[in-house]
Amino acid sequence: MTDDNEIEKCEFLYVxxxxxxxxxxxxxxxxxLYDLAELFKVFGDSTRIRILYALFERELCVCDIxxxxxxxxxxxxxQLRVLKANKLVKARRDxxxxxxxxxxxxxxxxxxxxxQHLSEGSGK
Amino acid sequence: MTDDNEIEKCEFLYVxxxxxxxxxxxxxxxxxLYDLAELFKVFGDSTRIRILYALFERELCVCDIxxxxxxxxxxxxxQLRVLKANKLVKARRDxxxxxxxxxxxxxxxxxxxxxQHLSEGSGK
DNA sequence: CTTTCATATGATTATTTGTTCATATGTTAT
DNA sequence: ATAACATATGAACAAATAATCATATGAAAG
Lengths: 124, 124
Hints:
Oligomer: homodimer
Strand content of chain A: 5-15%
Structural class of chain A: mainly alpha
Mean pLDDT of chain A: 88
């Protein structure tokens, strides 16, 4: 049916043995795939996405972000910590106030492609 | 200190009032930001990332993916359902076997930019 | 039609994760 | 030093989610 190389049954291993072998040799390192997932996990929360978009316009302090998004200062601070740890935003202190801004060109790119995907998906 | 427009205190609202107003007018729709987060959430799991990378090479059936990644058939099937619901993979049935393949150019783009970010981050 | 095999689905469970509350740190002004 | 304010941090709680187990569906072969 398919055509060439079915081998044994699926007893959890190898329906198409050479396909499996080929893919196995070309898979990236586990560490990298794990880190990649961790990075996207950061984008996978609407609060963080909204913070990033707010920072698209200009740098903002924690309190302003909280005001814009209708969140508590604490919640924003926690999420900014995550974003900062992943080098997506950077902080600048001016007296008592800490200003946050985007710290990565990739933020734009990633969000942009995500939007493209969404818009095309709805058009199908 | 800062320079122009501090207004009142942060009582949860508006340290820099015009900054807040400006950003508020330019924020995208809530729905879109939510959908965007949902999309990235799909990429935010190492199992799904690994499945996507396996499919980079060629289409694969559920059992092969399970074999390649050392997962149960059930776990893979559940994740494929998520990926399919988000139009990142598509399915093709051939008899008893269902072959999955990537269903979006954006998958390449998004993962590519993610990798760029990671590699630059470690070089800092 | 019954069996076999590949895949899918539902329920349960364990873990992760975002928010809240309370409190701590750090900076400026009095 | 003390007070006031912006921000950060830790613990506790609630919600989301990925894996597992049991079972169901769907297709081909006998």
